[in-house]
Amino acid sequence: MFIINEKEVEKGEKISKWLIGPWNASINEVELGVAEFNKGESFRAHFHLEVQEILYIIEGLIEFDVNHKKINLGKGTAIYFEPNETHSLRVLSDYAKILTVKSPSRPKDKFYI
């Protein structure tokens, strides 16, 4: 068992707080984190070769661009990205918070467009 509170984790690069992964728990194939954004903030278009990614919107309204198709999603919605699926986001609401799950854990498997 491993327990952590997001208040115990410092914000990482950009907006993410990676809570659980191979760096602090005895798991190698999954990462869990949260991200907080303010209005207008975005995350660049990228894809993963192996990693599958699930985002769950805890709060806010977010415009996603998935394979050059825009879709607006809000609180309580989950979205799944397959490997090789290009995705980015931009926050439309004043504030947004997202839960992120990635599997397998491959920190270097991110390629920006």
Number of helices: 0
CATH architecture: Sandwich
Sketch the topology as an H/E string, one letter per element: EEEEEEEEEE
Could you give the distance between the termini?
A: 38 Å
In CATH terms, the superfamily is Jelly Rolls
Query: How would you sum up the major sheet?
Result: 5 strands, antiparallel
| C-alpha-based Rg, rounded | 14 Å
Mean pLDDT: 94
The portion of residues assigned to helices is under 10%
Poorly predicted parts: none
Count of separate structural domains: 1
- Taken from the alpha-carbon principal axes, the silhouette is globular
Strand share of the residues?
over 45%
The side-by-side strand order for the widest beta sheet comes to: 1-2-9-4-7
The beta-strand count equals 10
CATH topology: Jelly Rolls
CATH class: Mainly Beta
Would you tell me the structural class of the helices and strands?
Answer: mainly beta
Care to give the gist of this entry?
The protein is mainly beta and about 110 residues long. The chain is built from no helices and 10 strands.
Features:
113 residues; mainly beta; Jelly Rolls; five-stranded antiparallel sheet; 10 strands; 0% helix; 52% strand; globular
Explain what the structure shows.
The chain is globular, with a radius of gyration of 14 Å. With 113 residues, the protein is an all-beta fold. The protein contains no helices and 10 strands. Strands 1-2-9-4-7 form a 5-stranded antiparallel sheet, with no helix packed on it. The protein has a 5-stranded antiparallel sheet with strand order 6-5-8-3-10, with no helix packed on it.
